[in-house]
Amino acid sequence: MASDAERNGSSTENVVTVFGGTGFLGQRIVSGLLDKKVDVRAVSRHPNRNQPHPSSHVKMPQRIEADILNRSSIAAAVAGSRAVVNAVSLYVERAGQSFERVHVEAAADLAAASREAGVEKFIQISGIGSDARSSSAYISARGRGEEAVKTAFPQAAIVRPAVMIGPGDSFLAAVIRLLRLLPVYPLFGSGDVRLQPVYVGDVAEAVARLVSRQSDTDANTFEFAGQRVYAYRDLVREIAGLLRMRTTLMPVPYSIWMLLATAAEWLPGAPLTRNQVELMQNDNILSGNLPGLKDLGIEPYGVDPVVRMIEEGH
Ligand SMILES: NC(=O)c1ccc[n+]([C@@H]2O[C@H](COP(=O)([O-])OP(=O)(O)OC[C@H]3O[C@@H](n4cnc5c(N)ncnc54)[C@H](OP(=O)(O)O)[C@@H]3O)[C@@H](O)[C@H]2O)c1
Hints:
Layout: H1 4-8, E1 15-19, H2 26-35, E2 39-44, E3 62-65, H3 71-78, E4 83-86, H4 99-116, E5 121-125, H5 137-152, E6 157-161, E7 164-165, H6 171-181, E8 184-188, E9 194-195, E10 198-199, H7 200-211, E11 221-224, E12 230-231, H8 232-242, E13 248-252, H9 254-264, H10 274-279, H11 303-311
Parallel strand pairs: 1-2, 1-4, 2-3, 4-5, 5-6, 6-11, 7-10, 8-13
Antiparallel strand pairs: 9-12
Helix pairs in contact: 2-7, 3-4, 4-5
NADP nicotinamide-adenine-dinucleotide phosphate binds at residues 19-20, 22-26, 44-46, 49, 67-69, 87-89, 125, 127, 161, 163-164, 171.
Domain NAD-dependent epimerase/dehydratase: 16-215
Pfam family, one: Epimerase
Protein name: Complex I NDUFA9 subunit family protein
């Protein structure tokens, strides 16, 4: 029986393997690469979820089932790749799946397997504010993960997106849901924290440019954020305005959010997680010291068109 690769006419010479290629960001990286006529392997534990729409691309990706926690399955998945992207997430710790295991050890294993396989380019998706010295288990694991990846694959590129928005996101969708549901909007703390939400499609395009040799930058750490910095409360007001809704904002202490998140992590789809609450206690904006979207020729979307995209169901 013909494999996906044979049916697609793929060769392994220009294959980019996207771990987490069915996720919110990963599926868009896969689409962006297909648009650039790159052969793609989309790897995840459930590879048939969230595939790009067949009519929108000449080729479809190879769908590979592999678990980043399983060293032999990652070696097989990266074999013959020119580039590898790690877009695997873990937002809630579960038995056998800690932030340390996924964001540090497994990221380093994937980088090491890629180096051993002769991969030219490795991209680790991390997050703005990653900091190995943070007291937050999540933020610290993201920082140590970056360091472990660079040890295993010294030329690896680190990509730190701000909070990403777009159809299917968890951030704007939650704001819109709460605005519709409640007459009074509960803010994280006093709503002072500063955010710079970035359209997920812009981040995907930037990653696709980095791996498809469309960029000649030799920088190896990038921060990707949107057009504008908002205080969280102003962002909620702006979204309410775009939806033509009136709302009253109510500050809610972070300690209460932590309690709510501890309970919500056990609900299907974990609608709120403790690491989200921790992330909302720190500004999530460009440091200004690292290259970003504009250095890759991308003018970032504002929040308004993304809210419209979500409303129109794109
Ligand atoms: N979303 C944001 O706002 C945001 C902001 C900054 C940074 N980031 C970072 O961006 C990256 C992608 O995030 P996302 O929001 O796109 O995540 P996501 O939607 O949760 O997707 C995660 C992907 O990883 C796969 N995956 C999870 N565990 C795996 C495992 N053990 N082995 C192999 N594949 C696995 C998932 O598929 P299966 O479950 O089928 O395996 C899925 O394809 C993450 O590093 C995240 O921390 C996200």
